[in-house]
Amino acid sequence: MSIEGTFQHVRNENLLEYFKSVGVPEDRAKQVDSAKPKLEVVVDGKKILMHSDSGAEKHTLTFILGEEVEERMYNNTTIKNTAELDGSTLTVKSKMANGKSGARVFKFSDSELVMTLYEDGGSIVAKRFFKRV
Length: 133
Hints:
The chain has a single domain, classed as Beta Barrel (Lipocalin). It has a 10-stranded antiparallel sheet with strand order 4-3-2-1-10-9-8-7-6-5. It has 2 helices and 10 strands; from the N terminus they run E-H-H-E-E-E-E-E-E-E-E-E. The chain is mainly beta. The longest helix is centred in the N-terminal third of the chain and has 9 residues, at 26-34. It is globular, with a radius of gyration of 14 Å. The protein starts with a strand and ends with a strand.
């Protein structure tokens, strides 16, 4: 099954609490929690591109399987990501400048994408649900 495709956001679970726990300012956390982005996933060899368009913001994430890549966050901080693909599951492990770590796990199916976010220690978990369009 291909992870490539276009996905429309449907709902979140615990996202606002997750963002607050990792230090995202409340106003920004609420903005992201209420957004309903469309996500396009493109695979180009070892490179995976995720184009997100919420109508108000456009953003592209680039992951290279097995290599560490930097991701610039909204507040101009940088995190370092390493991605691995196992079948229809993409796992992205992140290291922040403050020493904390976390992970995003993207599970793709024929009908949906479920993104699970884990913070350092795993005490707060959030999920974002997207339907394949």
